[in-house]
Amino acid sequence: MKKKSLLKGIIVLLTLTIVIFNLFSKGVKSDTYLDDEVSKSNTELKKDLERLDIESKYLTLYDKTNNKIVYSISGDKKAYPASLTKLMTVMAGIDEVKDVNEEVKVPIEAYDKLYQEGASMAGFSPGERVSYKDLLYGAILPSGGEAAMSISYLVSGSEQGFVDIMNRKSDELGLKNTHFKNSTGLHSEDNYSTTNDMSFLISHALDNSLFREIYSSKRYSMKESNKHSEGMTFRSTLFEKTDSNLILGGKTGYTTQAGNCLSTYSKINGVEYILVTMNANGKSSRDKIAVRDAENIYQVVYNNSK
Fold it and tell me: Partner of 273 at 20 to 30 A CA spacing, among 12, 127, 142, 267?
């Protein structure tokens, strides 16, 4: 009797095991099928992107919504970011300043090196009384070197002190191939990043509502000051080069050594994308070569999302 009971128990146990295994197996097959579909979709997108005549030497297309790199060309290779450096300057400035509406005085020290190196300027004057927010907009939209330097001096008392903050934040974000030497993006062998790192930085920065507001703006007007009786209006160097409705915001950059650099973001079919390109072989900051890359890439993403 005991043997028969034991045998029945074993049979029941085996039957339950088989049932559970079959159910589990069906679940795995379903998940695998979905993964294959996603993989197939990404493969088609990659093939279409590879057909493009992309001028930028380094590129990362990052899916912020799903936290993954979609497409990359030498995205982990070090390159000079030019004025994309100011993205970290502004992000760090927002983090460090308690009240962005506080009135401050533009320090004369902000101009010493900039005039010598022919840096891009927003139009602030030494001693001008403006708000931190004015400086933040001035650093991104017209890529003002004196705006970036003013933020550095006002927050830390020196550019080097602020650069230390930038590098600390870079380490906190895990940007292993990024190092900042200045807050403006003026050329230095020790001021470098990768398109992968920069896309992660921007993804983090876009979580801040003020950064997103600045990064997305086409223009910004500041009120009158002691140096500008009618105030000033800044216009985005990016939106001067494109009217694509797929590009929602971004920042341009250029030096002779870095070539044309560009960061942008888009939202396509509910998915937010960040695109960073570096070292497009343009002849000046006015060249649209990097912008054309972005327009073409986002169009391919849009076509694949239908």
Answer: 142
Residue 111 lies in a domain: yes
In a domain, 131, yes or no: yes
Handedness of CA 44, 47, 52, 54 (dihedral sign): positive
| pLDDT of res. 28 | 30
Task: For residue 229, count other CB atoms closer than 10 A to its CB.
Answer: 7
The token pair that represents 189 in the structure block: 């062998």
How many domains, in total, are found in the chain? 1
Enclosing domain of residue 192: 54-305
Rounded to an integer, the average pLDDT of 6-15 is 53
- Whether residue 268 is contained in a domain is answered as yes
305 in Cβ contact with 271 (< 8 Å): yes
pLDDT, one tens digit per residue, over 108-138 is: 988 988 988 889 999 999 999 999 999 999 9
CATH of the domain at 243: 3.40.710.10
pTM over 0.70: yes
